[in-house]
Design brief:
The protein is an alpha/beta fold. The chain is built from 18 helices and 17 strands. The N and C termini lie far apart (52 Å). The structure holds guanosine-5'-diphosphate (GDP). Residues 210, 212-218, 322-323, 325-326, 363-365 line the site of guanosine-5'-diphosphate.
């Protein structure tokens, strides 16, 4: 069948779009998991047609210097296989040099191209479109992969150019009156919602992330075993669905990619690396992450790496210290029983940047404190969507005495006002007289003040500076 590809530089939302389009029907195809060669395919059904989607994402290099070669690699994959290419850019940021380089490469291919301007939920639509025109790709669709806006429009456009072969046409020809039931269902209920919004208030997507053997799948079993598992209300996630949805306090918690959580890896370096890769993918598909730590081992370097990704992803985080039963009573290693306060202190020290995340000590095998985990998920999911009015914000700003706090404001910088521009994660824009980068300690101070005044437990807070003309 026809294939299309998603390309784009890191962090523009490729995986989120991929997950949204495929409804998590995917398979990792590669020589070795976790190595840069992995290639992920998904199946996209739209209006009765099925196409394959190749996610060229692979592993995003952490090193900025590697990004250009990564971009070229993606373009090559797209070139080899795809009948159409969707390039994704981040509508909330300026066009970057790699975007322009990639577009230039793609334009040479002569293949049908689409530019998905992502994350439009916070940006005025027309302005966004105009900014990205100069990239040279004319089929431009502003979308929000995260919220599902305009995804149907994008699919309409892409599917219109894909070469659906004879087999499908023949099938339709031979059985015109009675299409197979599944085909019919697929036509009526595409994998993607045009109106995802209606689910937003009711559903929270939860990722369980962590190193191998910390107890992720045990926790998953306990979560699904102690709550009412319900049939997924999202169309397109049927037998092959890998999400499980549970109900807690009237809310639907969608645990994403449970197949990925259950997949067993031996504890070796490869599995450890793969768990980091999986964490990043799971984060992209979620609202709240449960970062599972093994109490018998404390916070390791890999835990800190995964925690760092969670922080940067903008997702909310609940830290779950598992296997607490093993360190409190009847220790077999001769050490004295662990003290919760001391453990938490050490954990906070190793995971400094996640200081906003609640920590919960559990035993997944004994089912202890599981309800606290669920309570925390519900709580932080609400916090990340909370809105502060500009009026509240301005009254808050008047109270904060930056000078007294002794935090360095950039030279000659003045803050006129501050407003919350987005939720999930809460994002604040400071309108100032000059476009400057906020000093680290200033931002830290501001964040603490905002948290003290408004909460936002479990969620990172983002700040942006806009100079007022
Ligand atoms: P995963 O690789 O993160 O999914 O880890 P598993 O869920 O497979 O757990 C790894 C091992 O730790 C298994 O032998 C579990 O039975 C054990 N385990 C998980 N949670 C707990 C716990 O809370 N207490 C104890 N004692 N063992 C646990």
């Amino acid at each position: 069948g026809p294939v299309f590809a998603i390309v784009g530089r890191p962090n523009v939302g490729k995986s989120t779009l991929f997950n949204r389009l495929t409804g998590s029907r995917r398979s990792i195809v590669g020589d070795e998991p976790g190595i840069t060669r992995d290639r992920i395919y998904g199946e996209v059904r739209w209006n009765g047609h099925t196409a394959r989607l190749v996610d060229t994402g692979g592993i995003v290099p952490d090193d900025e210097a590697l990004i250009p070669s990564e971009i070229f690699r993606q373009a090559r994959v797209a070139l080899e296989e795809a009948n159409a290419i969707v390039m994704v850019v981040d509508g909330r940021t300026e066009l970057a040099a790699p975007d322009i380089d990639l577009a230039r490469l793609l334009l040479k291919t002569g293949k049908p191209l689409f530019l998905a301007v992502n994350k439009i939920d916070t940006v005025a639509l027309d302005a966004t479109a105009e900014n990205f025109r100069r990239i040279g790709i004319h089929n431009l669709v502003p979308i929000s992969a995260e919220h599902g806006h305009n995804i149907g429009d994008l699919l309409d456009e892409v599917f219109a150019v894909l070469p659906f072969g004879n087999e499908e046409a023949e099938e339709e020809d031979t059985e015109p009156e009675e299409p197979a039931q599944e085909e019919e269902a697929a036509a009526e209920k595409p994998a993607v919602h045009r109106t995802h919004g209606e689910f937003e208030q009711h559903e929270t997507r939860v990722a369980i992330i962590g190193r191998p053997n910390v107890g992720k799948s045990t926790l998953l079993n306990t979560l699904t075993g102690t709550t009412r598992a319900i049939v997924s209300p999202i169309a397109g996630t049927t037998r092959d669905a890998v999400d499980e949805v549970i109900e807690y306090q009237g809310r639907h918690l969608r645990i994403v990619d449970t197949a990925g959580i259950r997949r067993k890896g031996k504890t070796n370096l490869m599995a450890e690396k793969l768990s980091v890769v999986m964490a990043r993918r799971h984060l992209e598909a979620s609202d709240v992450a449960l970062l599972v730590i093994d109490a018998t081992e404390g916070v390791t370097a890999s835990d800190a790496t995964i925690g760092g990704y969670a922080h940067e992803s903008g997702r909310s985080v609940v830290i779950v210290v598992n296997k607490w039963d093993l360190v409190t009573t009847g220790r077999t290693d001769g050490k004295p029983p662990a003290d919760r306060e001391i453990f938490e202190e050490q954990l906070r020290h190793s995971l400094k940047y996640l200081d906003y995340a609640p920590v919960i000590f559990i035993s997944a095998t004994e089912g202890r404190n599981i309800h606290r985990v669920l309570d925390a998920v519900v709580r932080v999911a609400a916090e990340r969507r909370k809105r502060v009015t500009t009026g509240q914000m301005n009254r808050f700003l008047e109270r904060v005495d930056f000078q007294r706090a002794g935090v360095p404001l950039a030279k000659k910088m003045r803050i006129f006002y501050m407003t919350q521009a987005a939720v999930a994660p809460p994002t604040f824009v400071l309108f100032t007289n000059r476009q400057v980068k906020l000093h680290f300690s200033f931002e830290r101070f501001l964040e603490n003040q905002v948290r003290e005044a408004f909460g936002f437990e479990g969620s990172p807070i983002w700040f942006k500076v806009r100079a007022r003309e």
